[in-house]
Amino acid sequence: MLKREALRGLVPALMLVMASTTTPAVAADSPVLRVIATNVQGDAGAVHVWVYDQADDWLSDRYRTQKAVRVQGNRNGDAVTIELLLPPGEYALSVFHDVDDDGKLERNFIGLPKEPAGLSNNLRPKFGPPRYKDAKFVIEAGATVEQKIRLQ
């Protein structure tokens, strides 16, 4: 039977081993996606980036990943910068300033954004909905890719 003192030292050691085996390591050559949302007006709410990697999921709630950053304290002039680590691949972005801070992009009755929004490659379709193939871009291993998106 182990003594109580031995158990006290064993528990923290086991917790350290478990933490180190369950925390994913970030590879040194992981690509960085830097999103610069410009034309951000005011400090209310958050800027959201929704990352898509499949045309069938484009502009739905089935994004690959997402990240939100509070505007207050993170705005530099009219810009907010958000960085994400992603595996190499093909992606398209939807970015919006969630002014009312409800976690959703508010839309009007025909589906157009009521809050400032933009798409990767600064895509601005003239007729019809935006297409994934026009918004997509590629991130290669070890690269830093910057998408500067003007919110309107």
Outline the structure in words.
The protein is an alpha+beta fold and 152 residues long. The protein has one domain (32-150): Sandwich (Immunoglobulin-like). Helices cover 15% and strands 34% of the residues. It contains two helices and nine strands. The protein has helices at 4-22, 132-135, and strands at residues 32-38, 46-52, 65-70, 75-76, 79-85, 89-98, 117-119, 137-139, 144-150. Strands 2, 3, 6, 7 and 8 form a five-stranded antiparallel beta sheet that branches. The chain has a four-stranded mixed beta sheet with strand order 4-5-1-9, with no helix packed on it. A hairpin with a 2-residue loop joins strand 4 (75-76) and strand 5. The longest helix is centred in the N-terminal third of the chain and has 19 residues, at 4-22. The model is unreliable at 10-26 (pLDDT under 50).
